[in-house]
Amino acid sequence: MLRQVVCAVSALGVLAGSPALAGRAPSPANAEVFIIWPPDGAVIQGGKLWVRMGLRNMGIAPKGVDLPNVGHHHLLIDSELPPFDAPIPSDRNHLHFGAGDTEARIELPPGKHTLQLLLGDHNHTPHDPPVYSKRITITVQ
């Protein structure tokens, strides 16, 4: 009986270290996500704009694709970074680009807005360590 318990505990230790059960996908320490356009401080006329998203030292893959060192973009609009240990919310302030998009046309109302990118894994969960951009501010007129 004791041998069975020890084997079960050992098996749990091995499984807990496996990527499928570990929770967050690992990312390289030098991974970098960034907003190519618009630049910080941009003034946008009319509210419709393209957001162009960049990534270094990792790859882009659609949601559901579970490969090492890949993810997909999430654009945070007028929002703080969400908790890193749960899937990124999906709402008007957290836009998901699960098809592997690297650019998107969005529309914002007049005023100041913040934009920030957060890379998510195949389950929309931030990597470990999380890969997120600098937050930029734009003004829509």
Write structural notes for this entry.
The protein has helices at 2-16, 19-22, and strands at residues 32-37, 43-44, 48-56, 59-60, 70-77, 94-96, 103-107, 111-120, 136-140. The strands form two sheets. Strands 2, 4, 5, 6, 8 and 9 form a six-stranded mixed beta sheet that branches. Strands 1-3-7 form a three-stranded antiparallel beta sheet, with no helix packed on it. The protein is built from two helices and nine strands; from the N terminus they run H-H-E-E-E-E-E-E-E-E-E. The chain has 141 residues and is mainly β. Helix content is 13%, strand content 35%. The chain is elongated.
Condensed summary:
The chain is 13% helix and 35% strand. It is mainly beta.
Helix content: 10-25%
Proper CATH architecture: Sandwich
Q: What is the highest CATH level, the class? A: Mainly Beta
**Beta-strand percentage range:** 35-45%
Mean pLDDT value: 87
The beta-strand count equals 9
Poorly predicted regions are 1-21
